[in-house]
Amino acid sequence: MDIDINHIIQQSLKGDKNFQEILLKRLRPLIYKNIYKYWDVWDTEAEDMAQEGYIVILMSLKTFDSKKNVHYLHYIKTKLEYFYKNQHRKSGFRTNVSSLQEALHEYKTASSLSSIERIADQEEKYDLMKSIQNLSSEEQKIIYLYYFYGQSMQSISMNLGIKYGKVRSLKRQALSKLSIQMCRR
């Protein structure tokens, strides 16, 4: 049975720990949606930022003023947006492209490869990374989450705040593009 979000919010504001835990689970997609605006899916800092987001939500339960006629969801959405924007400014700017370029550079500069097979394997990885770089940012995120982090498409849908059907479509589209690009190489 699905509990009404307004009931969950009211109980969370009253301090009910069980409902606060439910609220955190319900707001998880909002957290990751904001994180992925500023950090790469594969960035290790993203998971730390998720934990920070949970803390922001819990703290906001104490600071929320219902007398101001603002719904809690609007309040927390705005609070998370500005929190992540400020954290991103503090940590320095990194884009998907720059992270991929760093990964490509690592593949290029791999030292002392001992056999032709290892060299061929590195070449394939390099070509794949270069091809992934040509995908849209949404396609890149889906490919990385699905293949590199082993997340299910349902989980990716929730984390990115994208409908499941769109995630499937984007994944299929990305694989098609990668297939074409890899065949050309």
UniProtKB/TrEMBL annotation:
Domain of life: Bacteria
BP terms from Gene Ontology: DNA-templated transcription initiation
CDD domains: Sigma70_r4
Pfam families: Sigma70_r4
UniProt cross-references to InterPro entries, sorted A to Z: RNA_pol_sigma-70-like, RNA_pol_sigma-70_dom, RNA_pol_sigma70, RNA_pol_sigma70_r4, RNA_pol_sigma_r2, RNA_pol_sigma_r3/r4-like, WH-like_DNA-bd_sf
Keywords: DNA-binding, Sigma factor, Transcription, Transcription regulation
Gene3D superfamilies: 1.10.1740.10, Winged helix-like DNA-binding domain superfamily/Winged helix DNA-binding domain
Domain RNA polymerase sigma-70 region: 132-178
Gene Ontology MF terms: DNA binding; sigma factor activity
Coiled coil residues, start to end: none
Family affiliation: Belongs to the sigma-70 factor family. ECF subfamily.
Protein name, entry field: RNA polymerase sigma factor (Sigma-70 family)
Organism from which the protein derives: Sedimentibacter saalensis
